Amino acid sequence: MTSTTGRQGGGGGRVNGVHVRVPKMAELVAAQLRRKIVRGELTEGEALPAETALMAEFAVSRPTLREAFRVLESESLISVRRGARGGARVQTPEGTVAARYAGVVLEYRGTTLKDVYDARTVIEAPCAGLLAERRTDGDLERLRAAVAEAEGLMDDPSAFIRAHMEFHALVVELAGNETLSVLNGMVRDIIDQANWSHVDLDAGTPENVRANRRGFRAHGALVELVAARRTEAAEELWRLHLQEAEDYLLQNRSMTTVLDLLG
C-alpha cells in the first residue's frame, strides 16, 4: 500500500484565493483505517496490526498513530486496551453513536420533545406505507409474532412498553430503507427514554391502560393493512397512531425539552 506521507501537523493554504485546510497526518491515517472498516476489510472484533507494523505501513510516528487511534475510538470504530497485553480491536459502526451525538446537539439547541415526536412521525408514517408496499410473507410473520408477544404482556406495563417500542422499530426496519432506519435510530433513543419516564409516572393507571389498549389495537390494525398491501391506509393509520401517542406522552408538563429529559 502506498504510504501516507506529508506534514505531521494540520495547516492550510490558499487555492484561487480560498483558504483550504490540509488534514493532519493522524486524520489521514484514521481515514484509511476507517475506510477498511466500513468496507468490511477489517471485521468486528479483529485486532489491528501491531503499532510497529502500522507505523511502517503509514510511515508515521507512534504519537501520530495513537492520535489516529483516538479519532477512531471517539467514533466507536475501534476499542483500545492499554498495557502490555493491549491493542486496538475493530467495532462495527452502530447508529447508537449518531443517536448519542444527536441528543447532545438537540439538548444544546433547546429542542422541544414535541419537535422530536413530530420528526418521528415524518420518518415512521411513510415507513408504514413502504412496508405495506414491499412486505414479504416473512415480514408478516415477524409483525404478527410481535403483536402476539405484546398481547401477552398487557398486564405488565414495563414489559408491554418495551414490546410496543420494539414494534415501532420493526416497522421501520422492515420498510427496507437504510437511511430512514438510521434517522429513526437518532430520534428513537430520545423517544424511548420519554416512554420509560412516562411509565414510571403513570404505569397501571386507568389512563395508561386505555392508552396501551389503543396502541395495541393500532398495531394489530396496521398488520392487517400491511397484509392487504393498502399502502395509503397503512401510512394514514400510523400517522394517526403516532399523533395520539404524542398527545398522550406530552401530558407530562414537567418535561418539555430534550434537556429536561436527558440533562
What is the structure about, briefly put?
This is FadR/GntR family transcriptional regulator. With 263 residues, this protein is mainly alpha-helical.
Task: Describe the protein in words.
The protein has 263 residues and is mostly helical. The protein has eleven helices and four strands. The strands form two sheets. A two-stranded antiparallel sheet has the order 1-2. The chain has a two-stranded antiparallel ribbon with strand order 3-4. Strand 3 and strand 4 form a beta hairpin. Helix 5 crosses helix 7, helix 5 crosses helix 8 and helix 5 runs parallel beside helix 9. It is elongated, with a radius of gyration of 24 Å. It starts with 10 loop residues before the first strand and ends with a helix.
What is the percent of helical residues? Answer: 55-70%
Major β-sheet profile: 2 strands, antiparallel
Averaging pLDDT over every residue, what do you get?
87
Order of helices and strands: EEHHHEEHHHHHHHH
Structural class: mainly alpha
Low-pLDDT segments: none
Global geometry = elongated
Q: How many angstroms separate the termini?
A: 46 Å
User: What would you report as the Rg, rounded to the nearest angstrom?
Assistant: 24 Å
> Which strands sit side by side, in order, in the main sheet?
1-2
E-strand count? 4
Please state roughly what percent of the residues sit in beta strands, choosing from under 5%, 5-15%, 15-25%, 25-35%, 35-45% or over 45%. Answer: 5-15%
Number of helices: 11
Pfam family, one: FCD
Domain HTH gntR-type: 23-93
Protein name: FadR/GntR family transcriptional regulator
Keywords: DNA-binding, Transcription, Transcription regulation
